[in-house]
Amino acid sequence: MPTLADLEAIYRRPFFDLIAESRRVHSEHWHDHEMQLCTLLSVKTGGCSEDCGYCAQSARYQTGVDAGKLMTTAEVLPIAEQAAASGATRFCMGAAWKGVRAGDARFGQVLDTVREVSKLGMEVCVTLGQLGDEEARQLREAGVTAYNHNIDTSPEHYANIVTTHTFQDRLNTIASVQRAGMAVCCGGILGLGESETDRLRMLEVLCGFNPPPESVPINCLMPMDGTPLAGQQPIDTFELVRLIATARIVLPKAKIRLSAGRTLLSREAQALCFFAGANSIFYGEKLLTAPNPEADEDMALLRELGLRPQTPYSDLPRPESLEPAHA
Question: Of 55, 186, 207, 273, which one is the catalytic site residue?
Answer without folding.
Answer: 55
